[in-house]
Write a structure and sequence with these properties.
It holds the Pfam family DUF6880. This protein is 69% helix and 2% strand. By secondary structure, it is an all-alpha fold. The chain has a domain at 370-477.
């Protein structure tokens, strides 16, 4: 049985309505956010129209604000925005979807004013607007809005997408637009992209940067931005309509030779059952001798070969790609397609290849991803002289994985970080090195044979010999 002082709904109900009301007033004193929430709940007791008026007032207040939003204020603003959005979606939309759409559109229009005066390094604010785009699509569908009106609103929005707040709007609105609405939006965007742009006279042109070819003018950037914005929007419409050819048509011929673009085109052609054309799209990319071919292109290539029933070639390419990059996804896909027991032998051969890979750190990262901690431990012991303690993220992860079952390997990894820190006199890392040395001392109790690595006492003595004057480090161990 829960204690009577446990905070739960049943115990709080026992306080009675009057006492709860008094407590809520007391708790909300000094908190604008709590007061707004209470007012919203009170409005909800009357009607969704009253709630809508409260939301509209709050959105207008946010739009009028001019105070800079530094990182300390982002969380409070995020909470406020999420509260308003949730109220629109959960309360207003259920009763009056047309009113809810007007409110969610007003909500989306806040983006420019917010981002102009904020510093949101976490990206949490833009996520709220992307979710609002998805919500707007659902509300618009529920409201049964006129597709022509909706297309015009969306067209105007994507033209003014300076902060990326409308990046997902067209896809979200596709169900509400339907084919006729998407066709109307496509027409509007094409008309906009073809509108003549007045070029200012030379003396009025504003230079905003320089390149090897000379000055970069603001009007040129704006013109390029308009073309790119229109092209991306038309690609999104093509995807919504399932029109692969229209999507491809929006890609300049030169861009089609870029690996990521070719992979995007190929994946769409594959989905449409056009594998031969997908292979032609991929073959436009010159991959000969390149070590930087993106995984997405490689994946599209093997999927295309499989679709063309060229499985042996796909397997050979998977193995080749794995050996070039140690990408574990290629090896997993390769092993899955082998007969029983053959996959075990192939895995052993692959591990032997990884152990001999020129870059010990890439090899270690592979074994951690697989995961194969026993192989990672063997690699660390065998190639300990190659370990770079400056790779703090990789080494910390490796030490954590190895500590429980492979204390010697974990010790070798920790020592690599300690040695780098002291050899480089990185005083900012001394506290970490001190912690790593303490971990080494703890692990030493579980190591029966240090081998050529040397015991903990021997390592500590050598460390004092080489770095005895680094008092900032040793003081941390006192």
């Amino acid at each position: 049985m829960a204690a009577k002082t446990t905070l739960n709904a049943k115990n709080l109900e026992a306080l009675g309505a009057q006492r709860l009301a008094e407590l809520l007033l007391e708790i909300s004193t000094g908190s604008a956010a709590h007061k707004r929430r209470l007012r919203m709940e009170l409005a909800g007791n009357h009607s969704s129209a009253e709630v809508g008026r409260e939301v509209r007032k709050r959105l207008a207040s946010i739009a009028r604000a001019r105070t800079f939003i530094d990182w300390r204020k982002v969380k409070a603003l995020k909470t406020d925005l999420e509260t308003q959005k949730k109220t629109i979606v959960d309360i207003v939309a259920a009763d009056d979807p047309n009113e809810a759409f007007e409110l969610i559109w007003q909500f989306l229009s806040l983006a420019d004013s917010i981002f102009e005066r904020s510093n949101d390094g976490s990206g949490s604010l833009i996520q709220i607007f992307h979710q609002a785009c998805a919500d707007a699509g659902i509300i618009a569908k529920s409201a049964g809005m006129d597709t022509g009106v909706l297309a015009s609103k969306i067209c105007a929005a994507v033209q003014d997408n300076g902060y990326g707040q409308y990046d997902r709007l067209i896809t979200a609105m596709a169900p509400a637009l339907g084919k006729d609405g998407l066709d109307r939006l496509k027409t509007l965007l094409m008309q906009w992209s073809k509108e003549p742009q007045e070029k200012p006279v030379q003396r009025d042109r504003q230079v905003i940067g320089w390149s090897s070819k000379g000055p970069i003018y603001e009007d040129e950037i704006f013109g390029n931005h308009r073309e790119l914005t229109g092209r991306i929007a038309l690609q999104e419409i093509a995807d919504a309509l399932g029109d692969v050819d229209a999507y491809i048509a929006q890609q300049p011929e030169k861009s089609r030779k870029a690996p990521m673009v070719a992979a995007d085109i190929a994946s769409r052609l594959l989905s449409a059952g056009r594998a031969e054309e997908a292979l032609q799209a991929l073959d436009k990319v010159d991959t000969l001798g390149r070590s930087d071919v993106p995984f997405e292109w490689q994946l599209a290539y093997v999927e295309t070969l499989e679709a063309l029933e060229r499985g042996d070639e796909a397997q050979a390419y998977r193995l080749q790609s794995f050996e070039g990059s140690l990408n574990d996804e290629h090896l997993r896909a390769y092993l899955r397609r082998l007969p029983d027991f053959d996959d075990m032998e192939a895995e052993e051969k692959a591990f032997a290849y990884v152990h001999a890979f020129p870059d010990a750190h890439e090899a270690l990262a592979f074994f951690l991803r697989w995961p194969a901690p026993s192989e990672a431990a063997k690699l660390v012991i065998k190639r300990r002289m190659e370990l770079d303690g400056d790779l703090y993220g990789l080494m910390t992860s490796a030490a954590g994985v190895l500590a429980e079952k492979y204390p010697l390997a974990a010790t070798v990894v920790l020592r690599s970080m300690i040695d780098f820190t002291l050899d480089s006199a990185r005083s900012s890392r001394y506290k970490h090195a001190a912690r790593h040395l303490a971990e080494c001392a703890s692990l030493a109790r579980y190591i029966d044979d240090f081998g050529s690595a040397g015991s903990h006492d021997a390592y500590l003595a050598d460390l004092k010999h080489r770095h005895g004057k680094k008092h900032g480090f040793w003081n941390l161990l006192a």
